[in-house]
Write a structure and sequence with these properties.
7-stranded mixed barrel, alpha+beta, homotrimer, Elongation Factor Tu (Ef-tu), domain 3, elongated, Rossmann fold, about 300 residues
Amino acid sequence: MLMTNKYSSISFLSDYGTRDEFVGVVKSVIYEIAPHCRVIDLTHEIEPFDVRAGSLSLARAVSYVASGVVLAVVDPGVGSPRRAVAVEVADGKGVFVGPDNGLLAMAIALAGGAGRAVCLTNTDYHLDAPGETFAGRDIFGPVAAHLCNGVDLSELGEMIDPALLLPGVVPLPREEKGALHGEVTWVDRFGNCQLNVGPDEVADFGDVVRVEIGSLMSGASATREPVVRALKIVRSYDQIGSGIGLVIDSYGMLSLCVDRGSAATELQIGQGDLVVLSRSSDSAAQTNISITTAVKISPTR
Amino acid sequence: MLMTNKYSSISFLSDYGTRDEFVGVVKSVIYEIAPHCRVIDLTHEIEPFDVRAGSLSLARAVSYVASGVVLAVVDPGVGSPRRAVAVEVADGKGVFVGPDNGLLAMAIALAGGAGRAVCLTNTDYHLDAPGETFAGRDIFGPVAAHLCNGVDLSELGEMIDPALLLPGVVPLPREEKGALHGEVTWVDRFGNCQLNVGPDEVADFGDVVRVEIGSLMSGASATREPVVRALKIVRSYDQIGSGIGLVIDSYGMLSLCVDRGSAATELQIGQGDLVVLSRSSDSAAQTNISITTAVKISPTR
Amino acid sequence: MLMTNKYSSISFLSDYGTRDEFVGVVKSVIYEIAPHCRVIDLTHEIEPFDVRAGSLSLARAVSYVASGVVLAVVDPGVGSPRRAVAVEVADGKGVFVGPDNGLLAMAIALAGGAGRAVCLTNTDYHLDAPGETFAGRDIFGPVAAHLCNGVDLSELGEMIDPALLLPGVVPLPREEKGALHGEVTWVDRFGNCQLNVGPDEVADFGDVVRVEIGSLMSGASATREPVVRALKIVRSYDQIGSGIGLVIDSYGMLSLCVDRGSAATELQIGQGDLVVLSRSSDSAAQTNISITTAVKISPTR
C-alpha cells in the first residue's frame, strides 16, 4: 500500500528533562522513521512522575499546538500493565500518543473530545528493546513517527472504547459560604501563581477581591498565619504597583503575581495550595491594604 | 498579492526558560503560520526580567546568527505602554522583533544599525488572546512568522523613527588614575568571567597585568578584602596553569578563568562586579604572585 | 566540483549547557553552512569538563542516533595541543566529530570501530575567530556542516591512523572473591543508578542478589555504614514494591531504582560509587530484608 505523509509535526511534552539524553534519543528514533517530521518541544521539565502537572501544561498548550501528533510522556507506570494509547481528535486532524494514566484527558477534552482510540499492542510498530523502562523510545516515539508516515490508527493495536480512557483530575474550585475555594494550579518560571479561577467566577465580588492565602496548605502539617489581601483585578504586571497583584493572565485565568518579581517566593506558596477568594469588606477602598510580609521584587540570581 | 517566503529562519532568545511550555507554545504558533521556517534557539535561560543580560547575550551572538528574523523577548513591561517593534538591519537581510526596552539596541548596532522600524500596532498580525501578559505568543511570535512569509514591515503597524528606539546601556570601562575600571559582563556556565575590556585596551600595561577584584562590589553593602593578582594574558585555558588566568576569550575579550574550574566560584564574583586593571609593578616577574584564596578546580556535581 | 548533500542530520552532544547562547551559536553557524541539515540535540547538560560522563552518554545513545554526523564536544583542553578529529564509522555512513580526548572512543567502538580518521588541521573549513576557546563554534560545528554538504574527510586535514586515537576509559566490573565489584556509571534525572553490570553477569547468583552499597565510596574520606540488601531482579519499576529495586533498565543494564522515587537520593550515592553484587545467603527468601534507611518516595518539588 502506498502511504503518504499524513502529519508533518510532533508536539512533544515529557518529564524526561534535558540533563540526560532521553529526549535526544526519542527524537533520533523519530527522525529515522519519519525524517520529514518536525518535532516541537513543548517542555520536558515536568517534575518527574507528576502526571497532574503534565496534564495541566498540555491543557494550557493544546489550543496552540500545531495540528498533527501530540506525544506526551509522563509515565511513572512504564512497564506496568497501564495501557499505551493513541487517541484521535478533531476527525483525525490530531492524534494524542501517550500512556493512559490521565495525562492526556484534559487536553483531549479541550481539543473537542476523543474520536477513535487504540491500545498500542501491535509490536510491529515498536522498537525491540533490551528493557521495558523507556516506552518513549521504544513505543510512543516510534508510533508517533509511524502515524506521521500515514499508518492508520487501526493498525497500531486493538481499538478501544474512548469512553473507557482514564479521565484526568480537573481541579475545579468550589463555593463555600459565599467564598470561592480555589488552588494554585501552576507556578511558572517567573513565580506567577495561576489559580483555577477565572475572572467571571469572581465578578460578583466586585472590582476588589478579598484573597486569603495559606489558611490551609496542601502539606498536612503546615501551620502558619494566612495572608489576607484586598486585591484589584488588573490586566498587566505594571498595573500591580508594589506588592501582590491579581492579574488576568495569558490564559484568561486569575494569577497571583508580583511586578518584576516572584509571587511564589513572596507568598511562600506552591502548586496545590489553597486560595480563598471572597467579597472584600472594603471593595471601594485602596488595594493591598494588609501587606504584612516584606516584598522583595528583585529577581534572584 | 502573491507572497513569497522571505526569510527561512528565526533565531529566538528569551527569558522564558524551558521549565514551562512558553517556548514550545511560541514555536507552535510560528509553525502554524510559517511551517517552512526553522527556529534556532539561542537561549531561553536569560534570568527573568534581566534585559541587560539578554542584550549582552544577543550582542555576543549576533555576528553568528543566520540572516533572517531575530526574535528576542525579555520583556518585564509586557502589557504596559512600552512599544513592541520590528527593526530592519543590513538593508532588510535581517529583522529584529521584540520589545523596545533596550534589549535589541546593542545587537542592532553591531549588525550595522537600524534601517526601517515599525511599531507593531496592526493587530491583524497578532493572535487574539484571553490576556495581555504573553506577547511572545500573541504578538512577537506571529509577527516574526508573518515576516518570514513575506509580509512587509510597513504592514505591521506605524513606521517609526529608528533614532527614537530606546538605546541599550553599553557597559564601557573607564580610565581613572592610569587604571582601567572594567566590570564582569557575563559569567558563563563554566564560571568564566568575561570583562568589558579587550586586550588592546591593556596593551600599555605590558605582558603581565595587575588585576584587582572585589574592591567595590555591585552589592551596596559588600565589604571584603579585594583580591589582587599579577596575571599574564594567555590564549587558552591550559596556559593558565593553576589559579586564576586572564584569557583572551572566544569573543576577543579578556576573561577571568580557571583551567577546568570556575573563576566565578573561586573569586566569589558575579555579573556587574568591578575589576580594576593596571600596570603591574613586577611585570617581568612570575604570574599569580598573590594567591590568597584556596583553589578548588574540580567541577561541582 | 559539484557537491551533493551527503548527510542530512547532525546529532549534537556537549557540556555547553543551555543557560548561555553557546549551543544556539553553534547551530547558527551550522545553519549558515548547511541549511538543509537537521540538528538533533542529544544533551548539552553533561557536567562541565566531564569527558567520561559525556562518553557514557554518547555510548548509550549511539545505537539510536540517526546515521549522519555526530558532533560531540566536551573539551576541557580546548586551545591546547589536543587534536581535533573526524572519524568515519560504518563505511562512511556516519562520522564522529570532536576532540581526541577519549570522548568519542566508546561510541565509535559500539558503532563498529573507526574507519578513516582525520586531524582537523585545514583551516579553510574553520571560522576565523577572535579567540581560541570556542572550538565548537569555530572548528567542530563548521566541519560537521561541511561534511553534511559533501566535503570529503580527506579535505579536512591530515589523515591519521585511527589506531592512534585516544582510547576511552571503559568502566568494567571486576570479580573478587566470588563477588562482582561494579560501579554507578550514571544517575539519571529520576535518580535511577545504572551499574556497569548486566543481568547475565550475575546470573550465577540466582534470582535474588546481595547488593552492598557504599562500602567504599568514590570520595576519599567517605566513611559510613554500607547499605546491604537482598534484591530480586525485576523488569519494571512497579515490580519493585517499596524500597530499592534492581531493575533491568532500558539499556539492558542493572539499575538501582525506587518506584516513583530517586534511588540516588534514597541511598545517597552518585556516579562512580562502588556497588558490590554477590550471591545472597537467603536467595529464596523475601526481598528487601534489611531496609535500614527511611524511604521517601515522593518526588521533590
